[in-house]
Amino acid sequence: MNQILGGLEGGATVSTLVLLDADGKVMTKTTGPGTNHFLLGMEECRQRIANMVNTVKKDIGMRQDQPLSALGLSLSGCEQEETNQELVRGLLENYPNLSERYAIGSDTEGSVAATSNHGGVCSIAGTGSNTLLINPDGSRVQCGGWGYLLGDEGGAYKIAHSAIKSCFDDLDRFSPAPHSIDKVWALIKDHFQIKVKEDLLEHYYTKFDKAFIASLCKKLSTLASEGDDAMAKYLFENAGRQIAQSLGAVIPKAAAELIDKPGGLHVLCVGSVWLSWPLLKPGFDKYMVEHTEISTITLTRLTTTLAVGAAYMAADKLNINIPRFYDENFRILDVFRRETFCNNFSGNNICVKI
Known about the structure:
The structure is a single chain. The protein is of the alpha/beta class and 354 residues long. It has 14 helices and 11 strands. A 6-stranded mixed sheet has the order 8-7-6-9-10-11, with helices on both faces. Strands 3-2-1-4-5 form a 5-stranded mixed sheet, sandwiched between helices.
C-alpha cells in the first residue's frame, strides 16, 4: 500500500483521527474518546490512540501489522517536549506496528498547521481554552492551556462555572450579580436537576464531571440569544473579553509578516464556544480596541477536521511531501477593524487605549 499519513486531534473529551493518501485526500475518519494524558495517564492514552488507529486501518483494508507511514498527534495536554517524547517512546515500544514515525504537538499547534505552514495564531475555546502564536521562523508564544483549575478562561467550563458562582455569590449576598440571576439560576437547577444550592455540591465534590458541567454553556447561549437574558449575555460578553485578552498577550510577539497579511492577523477560531460568536463579539471588540494596537484581525473557522491539521503537522515536521489544501480548509467568521469600531462609537472614550 502507498504512503498513508495519519492525523489525530485529541481533546479532553473527544478525539478525531483521519488517514490521508499520497494525494492528501482523506481516506477515512473516526472519532473516539479523549486523549489527554494528564487526565488519563500515559498508558491509557496510548491504548486509546492504538485502538483508533487500528479501527481506521480496518476501515481501509489495511493489515493491523502494517504501520502507517507517519502519524501526527495534536493532543490536548501536549505542551511539554519531555512528556511528549515519553508518550511517543511508549507507542514505539508497545505498539511497534502502529506507525513508522510520529510527530507530536499541542492541539493548538495542529490547528495552526491546518491552514498554513508559515505560522499563524490559533484560539481554542471549547471545553477549555488555549491560544498559540507560531511565527514563520518557528518561534512561538502561548497563553493559557492550563486546564480548568489554573486557567481555561473563555472556555465552556469556565462560562458555566462563572454562571454557577455568580448565582451562589448573589444568593449568599456575598457579591451581587450585575443583572438578575432568576433565569440563569432556574436554568442551572433544571440542568443539574436540583432544588437548592446544597444539591449542587455533589456535582463538584463527589461525582465531578467536567464535561457535564461544561455542557451547561450551550443552554446559557440559548438563554442569552433566544431568551434575551441580560445575565446570560453578560457571561458571554465577559468570555469574549477573556478570549481577546489571551490573544492580546501573544499579538505583540507576532512577526510583521503575520500582522501585515491581507485581512491583517488571521486567527483560527477552534471550539464550540465560537459558535456563540455574536454573544462574544461585544466583549472581544471592546477589549481589542482598549488594550491592543492591532488594526485588523480576520477570524476564521475550519471547514475540515482538526485531524487534517495534525496530519499536516506531521508532514511539516517529518519533511513528508504531500499536497495541502489550505484555502479549502477554512472560512471567514468575522473581521475586526479598529477603524470601523471606533467610527461606530465616535464621541465616546471607548477607543482610548488604557
